[in-house]
Amino acid sequence: MFNLFRKKADSNESGKLPFQVEVHCHVLPGIDDGSKTVESSVEIVGKLQSMGIRKIIATPHITNETFPNTKETIEAACNLLKPALIREGIDVELVYSAEYRLDELFDKIHAEKALIPFPKSCVLIENSFIQPYWALEKLIFDMQTEQLNPIIAHIERYAYYYDDKKKVEAYKQQGCLFQVNLLSFTGYYGLSTRDFALWLLSEGMIDFMGTDVHNMRQLHMLETFLQGKTYKKIAEQLKRFPLKNDLFLTE
Ligand SMILES: [Fe+2]
């Protein structure tokens, strides 16, 4: 009887996320491959709230080819969503930044010193999935010199690092921050991605986790995962290597 009660108290039956600040998500309506409408954005943010999120840093794609968003397009989408959240009684703080693909547009915005950083001057950067950025080490150094803190988005998803862990360790030694998608632990992006995420976790190299949510289906998958046994082991590891997400709660 007592064991039964203990089991209940130990498991994450609530499906809560291991952070209260979402740092990687596509919840702004109509400006990338994430939420298409204000209504679906409200639904996603409401669900994130029920999973424990109190603050969202929205990170719509900025890519040269597909989503050449600007501060204006992002701010406009944010201003559409904010009043809708208030109308629905959803009490989640919403701020915006971006997920910058490392391409020519990024180089231009960077050169113009027009990046939209997170709090604490962090900038979420995304590599191509096909080939590594040609000069990432230099870019990290340059950004740090400019008092910017690069965060590599879902670093576990770049297959070219799977046999090149030394490179990942070198970026970490440079002081680069790493973000991992929680969905990666489910096998959603494949087993190699899952294994790499587990390696990063065991090495204490994950600074931030995020949902990288684009739609409700992903949140339902995550919610189920958070209630399962596999997640319990991850949560144990996170006690040794706490995430930095919630440092953004007060900024
Ligand atoms: Fe993303």
Give an account of the 3D structure:
The protein is of the alpha/beta class. It has one domain (10-248): TIM Barrel, CATH 3.20.20.140. Helix content is 40%, strand content 13%. The protein has nine helices and nine strands. The chain has helices at 2-10, 38-50, 71-87, 104-111, 136-145, 165-173, 191-202, 216-226, 229-240; strands at residues 21-22, 55-58, 61-62, 93-96, 99-101, 122-126, 149-152, 177-181, 208-210. The strands form two sheets. A six-stranded parallel beta sheet has the order 3-5-6-7-8-9, with helices on one face. Strands 1-2-4 form a three-stranded parallel beta sheet, covered by helices on one side. Helix 2 (38-50) packs across helix 3. The longest helix has 17 residues, at 71-87. It is globular and about 45 Å long. Mean pLDDT is 94; it is low at 1-10. It binds fe (ii) ion (FE2).
Overall 3D shape? globular
Structural class, from secondary structure content?
Answer: alpha/beta
Mean pLDDT: 94
Give the termini distance in whole angstroms. 45 Å
CATH fold assignment: TIM Barrel
Features:
single chain; 251 residues; alpha/beta; TIM Barrel; 6-stranded parallel sheet; 3-stranded parallel sheet; 9 helices; 9 strands; 40% helix; 13% strand; globular; disordered N terminus; binds fe (ii) ion
Q: Would you kindly provide a brief summary of this structure?
A:
The protein is 40% helix and 13% strand. It has helices at residues 2-10, 38-50, 71-87, 104-111, 136-145, 165-173, 191-202, 216-226, 229-240, and strands spanning 21-22, 55-58, 61-62, 93-96, 99-101, 122-126, 149-152, 177-181, 208-210.
